[in-house]
Write a structure and sequence with these properties.
By secondary structure, this protein is α/β, with parallel strands linked by helices. About 40% of the residues lie in helices and about 30% in strands. β5 (about 140-145), α5 and β6 (about 170-175) form a beta-alpha-beta unit. The two termini are about 20 Å apart.
Length: about 280
């Protein structure tokens, strides 16, 4: 009776081992080393009405958007987010590595729903707040504006000081070639009516101060070609290589349980036939 019970237990144990083997058991033993160049970058784009000025073709905003798309396509390994601003601030896209999505969202940068002012300080402040908890070692804000900050709770310099504390660089791009450039204001008897931009062009000194505070750079894009040159220089920014966790390495236990299961089942079957003299 004892021998029969023992053979039965051995056989059952073998079937249990075999069943467990079919679940493909494994345990993690570590990670493959992997290095990756990673920057986190926010594009902060002015969508005040002055960006409709006609000194770019067809206007400042559309020319900027075309160059921004080219810029994005050259940086496929980075996370990029988009903030647009006028009087109000709006995060159009949080940080993303989906290149097609980022390029598509650039088309949604539009003038109109965010008011009439130019709120550079709060826009930069929002970008800084979103980058604070980023794991990237290199954090960058690129500001596109053609105006003078005239609205908001935070001044551009205050926002730059916060960026400096967090080691976030700000690169400023003053978009516009003519102080007396004109913007469309509606349709008249003889076609589209234009007026000179109220308040003039961008504040060069403030843009320089913002960039210098954060160890970034300040650029003036006075025409389409100048804007392209600016973005080409930004594309040459040094990327930081960091070590990240790669693919998980597993120890596979499948074959061990399969072998033990087969051995126990075969052993139990042989014992039944040779020791107990059971027939099939």
């Amino acid at each position: 009776m004892f021998i029969q019970l023992t053979i039965f237990i051995v056989g059952i144990t073998g079937w249990l081992f075999l069943s467990y083997a079919l679940t493909y058991p494994r345990i993690p033993s570590g990670y493959t080393p992997n290095s990756q160049e990673l920057n986190d970058l926010y594009l902060v784009v002015d969508v005040s009405r002055s960006m409709l000025a006609d000194d770019f073709n067809p206007n400042r905003l559309e020319a900027s958007k075309q160059k921004i798309k080219e810029f994005i396509r050259k940086r496929p390994k980075e996370r990029i987010g988009i903030i647009m601003f006028s009087e109000k601030i709006f995060t159009l896209l949080p940080l993303s590595m989906d290149l097609d999505l980022i390029v598509k969202m650039v088309d949604d940068i539009q003038i109109g729903p965010l008011g009439a002012g130019t709120n550079i300080g709060d826009a930069l402040g929002l970008a800084v707040a979103r980058l604070i908890h980023s794991p990237a070692k290199n954090k960058v804000i690129v500001l596109f504006t053609d105006g003078v900050s005239n609205f908001g709770n935070m001044t551009p310099v205050q926002a730059a000081e916060e960026a400096k504390k967090e080691n976030i660089k700000i690169y400023t791009i003053g978009v516009g070639g003519e102080k007396d450039a004109k913007i469309p204001v509606g349709q008249g008897m003889f076609g589209t009516q234009y007026q000179t931009i109220p308040g003039g062009s961008y504040d060069i000194e403030s843009l320089k101060e913002i960039a210098q505070l954060t160890k970034g750079k300040s650029f003036i894009a006075s025409d389409d070609q100048a804007l392209e040159n600016v973005l080409q220089e930004l594309n040459s920014l040094e990327k930081v290589k960091i070590e990240v966790k790669g693919k998980i390495i597993y120890n596979e236990l499948y074959y061990q349980y399969l072998l033990w299961g087969v051995c126990l089942i075969v052993g139990a079957e042989l014992s039944r036939r040779l020791i107990l003299r059971e027939s099939v």
